[in-house]
Design brief:
Structural class: alpha/beta
Helix content: 40-55%
Distance between the termini: 59 Å
CATH class of the largest domain: Alpha Beta
Shape: globular
CATH superfamily of the largest domain: Nitrogenase molybdenum iron protein domain
CATH architecture of the largest domain: 3-Layer(aba) Sandwich
Largest sheet: 5 strands, parallel
Number of domains: 2
Radius of gyration: 19 Å
């Protein structure tokens, strides 16, 4: 396929022209595509791509992020597939690549990489101007100093209990909002397991319970309130912590307001 040579965020070389038939395998990137005005260009999304809701109703759904129907994707004749190293599998990316489909893979662990991704998707899709404007809007939010630090732990799974550690986009979003990770010494993985005893010892000012990837409920809130009676336990929309892309423009103000409200209690 004739086109320009791009380097994705994993270092892979991707040859692609200006994309006119896009399949997105990443919910947050699907939402970004909508923000960039790619309503006609995006032809396939996953069953987890719930935003925008009208796309979820009208676009072809090609399965989940971990188990997409690669044959269905190939049948859509995409000239670009947008994927993510963490959310999608290497085997699916390789299958699509062998089929001759340009697959651009993001790898996002901090805010700078997230903004680079926005620019790259804009350039791949002919929406460079729109992407630049979005990046500038987000950067303007980040120029403003965050509120005073509030000690926090953000959990991402229940059994086993796991938290967002350093070198993750969630950690970067917490820092941008003024939340200081109370358990930064657990370096075994980006999402280390954590025990009740470790939470008690850390004594965070707040425990954040996002709605994804694990759907924390009120029973989990009750558990942590009993375990940490002096700690605020807050359920938050997971998209505001883990969706890189256009969602950042709303997430940064939301998380900073949450920080400020906790500081006042």
């Amino acid at each position: 396929m004739a086109g320009q040579l791009f380097t994705d965020q994993t270092g892979r070389q991707v040859c692609a022209g200006q994309a006119t038939r896009i399949v997105s395998l990443v919910p947050s990137i699907t939402e970004l595509c909508a923000a960039l005005g790619l309503g006609h260009e995006v032809v396939g999304i996953t069953r987890f791509c719930v935003s925008p809701p009208e796309w979820y109703r009208s676009k072809t759904r090609i399965g989940g992020t971990k188990n997409p129907d690669t044959k269905k994707i190939i049948a859509l004749r995409p000239d670009l597939v947008l994927a993510n190293k963490e959310e999608n599998t290497a085997s699916d990316i390789e299958t699509l690549t062998r089929a001759g489909i340009p697959v651009w893979v993001s790898d996002i662990r901090n805010l700078a990489q997230a903004l680079d991704m926005v620019r790259d998707v804009g350039n791949l899709s002919g929406r460079g101007r729109e992407a630049t404007a979005l990046v500038q809007d987000i950067e303007a939010l980040l120029v403003v100093a965050p509120p005073d630090p509030v000690s926090a732990v953000c959990l991402v799974w229940w059994n086993p209990m796991m938290m967002a550690g350093e070198d993750t986009f969630i950690h970067a979003m917490m820092e941008a909002a003024g939340f200081q990770n109370a358990l930064t010494g657990l370096r075994k993985s980006r999402y280390p397991e954590v025990t009740d005893a470790q939470l008690v010892a850390a004594s965070p000012r707040v425990v954040l319970l996002p709605s994804e990837p694990f759907p924390f409920s009120e029973k989990h809130v009750a558990h942590f309130r009993a375990l940490l009676p002096a700690t605020e336990v807050v359920r938050v929309p997971g998209e505001f912590l883990s969706w890189y892309g256009s969602r950042m423009a709303a997430a940064i103000p939301y998380l900073r307001r949450l920080n400020e409200s906790l500081a006042q209690t």
